Structures are given as C-alpha cells and as structure tokens.
Amino acid sequence: MDTAQLPTTDEAREQLLDALEHPDTGQLPALIARWHPALIADAVEALPRDMRHTLWDRLDAIDRGQVLIEVGRGVRQQLIDEAAQDELLAALATLEMDELADLDADLPVSVLDAMVRAMDVQRRERYERVKRYPDDTAGGLMDVDAAAVRGDVSLKAVLRYLRQVRKRDGKLPEHMDSLVVVDRQNRYLGMLRLSDLVSHKSTAIVSHLMDAEAPAIQVGTPDTRVARLFEDRDLMSAAVVDDDGHLLGRITIDDVVDVMRAEADGEVMRRAGLGEDTDMFAPVLSNAARRAVWLGVNLINAFVAAWVIGLFEASIDQVVALAVLMPVVASMGGVAGNQTLTLVTRAIALDQIGRGNAMALLFREVASGLLNGAFWAIVVAVVATAWFGNTQLGIVFGCALLINLITGATAGTLVPLLLERLGIDPALAGGVLLTAATDVVGFFSFLGLATLFLL
C-alpha cells in the first residue's frame, strides 16, 4: 500500500468499525490484508472492548501474534483472556524468542506450559536462554539468533555461511546490518558491516575489516541504558555478551525503538498517576479504582493547604485582598518548581546526576530561583501597590513570591533526588510532593507575613 494512502489511527478505527458493523460488504478482509499489524494494533486499542475480539477472530495467526506484541498491556490482557487456547498457541508459534519473552508474563500458566511443550528442542533451548534474564535488561531484549563469524576467515567463507543460513532457515536474521565477529572461544571481537562484506575482495580476512571499536553490551545492562547507547552511537544493532565477553545474542534497533516508546508513554502516564498498561476502554470500576489513589493523595494535599489558610482566617477577613492574591503566590511557585522538576527528572533518567554534581545543581537552581524571584517580586509588588493602593501589601506580596520561587526551585531539585534514592519513580510522585510544598509554603509565607506586617 502506498504510504501516502496510509490512514491515521482515527481513520483506521473508523474504517474498522464500519467494516465490523457491516460484515456483508467484505471490507474487513481487504483492510486486514493491506494494513501492517502495527496499524491494526493501534486501531484495536481505539476500538470499544466489545468490538476487539470480533476483529481478533478475523485475523490470521501471524497477525494475531504481531497484534499481541504491538498493543498495550491492558488491551493485550483482554485479548489473551478472551482468546481460545489453540488460537493463542498458533499466534505464539509465529513469534521470535525475544517477542515471546515479552509476552509470557501475561500468559495463563496452561497456555505457557502448552507453548513450551509444543516447541522443538532447538526452539525450546533458545527460549530458555532468553528467559534467564529480566525483560528490562539487555538479556531480555536480545535475539539469541546472532549471526556470528570468526575473525580468521575470508569474506568468501562468510558469504558461503550466509547462504547456508538462508537455505536452512529460509531467511537471514532480521535487521541484519552487520555480523558479529568472535574468536574460537566465542568471545566478542567486533562487528563486520555488510557494506564492507559486499564491497571488498572475497579473499580479504574478516579481522582486517571488522570494527573492533563497536561496543558490546553487557547482558545485565538496563534497557534504558541500552536505548541511550543506541541513540548516542547511532547504532542499528549491537552484540550482547556475558561478564567474560562471550557472545550471547544481538539487539536490533526495532527492539530499542519499542523501549523508547514504552519509556515515553510510561512517563506521560506516570505524571498523571496512571499505570503504563492503562486501557482507555477499561471497565469503569477498575478504571476508577486505579485513579482513586492519586486523587486521594491530592485531596490530602488540598486539605493541608486549606488548613494553612484556615490558620489565617482572621487576617483574610480583615484584608480581603489577601484572598485575591494568595493563589498567585502558590501558582508561581508551582510553575517554577515544575520547570526544575522536569529538568532534574530527565537528568536522572539519563544518568546525568550523581553525588559529584547534585549539590552544584541544587545551588544553580536555587540561584536561578533567587534571580527570577527578585525580578518578579518587584513586578508584582508594583502591580499590587497600584491595584490596591497599599505599599505594604505590595511588599509583602513580593517577599512571599520570592520565598515561594526559591522553595519551588529547591523542592524541584531535592524531591526527585530523594525519591530516586528511595527507589520511587520521580515521574510518578514528584509532581504531587512538589505541589504540596509550593502550596503550603506559598500560603503560609504570604498570609504569615501579612499577619505580621499588615495587621
């Protein structure tokens, strides 16, 4: 299908809905045949729950396997729960080992056992090798079918080996831009690019052409670190090795793109207090229960801020302008804090912060908060004085704003660092704690200073 004619997810969903509601038109088989499974998966996620399995029933085994890989975990769990065991087994049989390793945690035990029993000896051995490692590590991402050649052979021998692989398996490994070079003990030596393989004399020796500087990835490396390495080095593939340098497998760019997308999606969802596997058409009861926790945390924050305001009820009654201005103080502190929080959370994710630079970053952010606070304190003091005709009120307003901007910068730096030290995701809880700090300090500083100097 011409890429210019590819529909958007919304257009695909509408076309699928129309085809599912009018099965006599014969549109559905034509759409499924033309579309890539990834587009079908996107449309499946956007379909109401009762329509998803109807579409699943019309897919073949290959498309079902790819749809399970592409959809979010919440939708995947629904499809697995509602599918017949023989349908699942047929779909799973079409997947690569690293893809199976990504799915097996969501599979019923009976399906998992039947899947392993149905494997031939070689496939079962490869599956067990991948399952030794957690899903969020290089070992969990890797494909064990790494095409490896020795460094002491000629390019002619390498080409003969690749022809044998194609004859044996019917295809070469996916996304193969280079071959892994190893010694006789299967220890990693470097990478041989396919461009070098096909452009040099067939008598050339592999070790003379290989890239010995190409990085190999330790099997226990977190998947986010793997993604960063691919981004920094512009890699298409990389070898995975154990602690002794022995070749275990290969990671390709398609696996890394999935990691990047999952990390980005998870970041957005965690900032809203939602799980990464949230299904937008999940049952209302479970959906409400999932959101209730963070709504409760925010409610506690709101009550704490309201309690602080209540401490100064008499002051607010005497100077009505305080009620008008105090939300501005809290809001400005929250904005300043969120700017710092975003910066620090990103730096933590990229491993850019450690003991050696944490204090320097704190001082820098506090200094920025102080400069911004001083500038905007003068601005709001002038505005408040002109608005309410009260110079003392303007000065109090400006001082409170200065205090809260410094508080926002300080909390925005310290909160994510503390959460990361405690093993809590800063993207999940950082915003809630920051809001609590800037609201409480903002209200307390403004109303407290007003009580001391205006009343």
From TrEMBL:
PANTHER family from the UniProt entry: MAGNESIUM TRANSPORTER MGTE (PTHR43773)
Q: How does it assemble?
A: Homodimer.
CBS domain mapped to chain residues: 142-207, 210-266
**GO cellular component terms given for this protein:** plasma membrane
Q: What is this protein's function?
A: Acts as a magnesium transporter.
What are the protein's UniProt keywords? CBS domain, Cell membrane, Magnesium, Membrane, Metal-binding, Transmembrane, Transmembrane helix, Transport
Against SUPFAM superfamilies, the record matches this protein to: CBS-domain pair, MgtE membrane domain-like, MgtE N-terminal domain-like
Family recorded in the similarity comment: Belongs to the SLC41A transporter family.
Q: What is this protein called?
A: Magnesium transporter MgtE
InterPro entries recorded:
CBS_dom, CBS_dom_sf, Mg_transptr_MgtE_intracell_dom, MgtE_N_sf, MgtE_transporter, SLC41_membr_dom, SLC41_membr_dom_sf
Q: Which GO terms describe its molecular function?
A: magnesium ion transmembrane transporter activity; metal ion binding
| Positions of transmembrane segments | 292-312, 319-337, 370-389, 395-419, 431-454
Topology in the lipid bilayer: Multi-pass membrane protein
Source organism of the structure: Nitrogeniibacter mangrovi
Location in the cell reads: Cell membrane; Membrane
Q: Which gene is transcribed and translated to give this protein?
A: mgtE
